[in-house]
Amino acid sequence: MRHEELKAKALSRENVKAEYDALKPEFTLLHEMLLARQKVGLSQAEVAERMGTKSPAVTRLESSLSNGRHSPSIATLKKYAEAVNCHLEIKLVHN
User: 3, 8, 53, 66: which has the fewest Cβ within 10 Å?
Assistant: First the structure.
């Protein structure tokens, strides 16, 4: 079974779809972070150096958004954004 087929099958279950949708903000942020790092052509080690930390910390930061085990602080996200020549914007959007 291909990934797309497996995903479609899983998302056809209401409880799985609800959990998947609940993680959308984290996955969207992770996608944006990875694109920003790729755009400036930096490795995790180079981002870490710019942030004043070690490479495993950036690995944990990026993976934390995909596994939902930890929510990074706004200060950490701001440092990451600055390291990849971006700025952080946070906003509330009415449903």
Answer: 3
Cα–Cα distance between 77 and 95 in angstroms, integer? 24
- Domains of the chain with bracketed CATH: 25-95 (1.10.260.40)
Report helix, strand or coil for 12. Answer: coil
- 16-40: pLDDT as tens digits: 889 888 888 888 899 999 999 999 9
The pTM is what? 0.80
Q: Which segments of the chain does DSSP mark as H helices, in order?
A: 3-11, 14-22, 24-39, 44-51, 55-67, 74-83
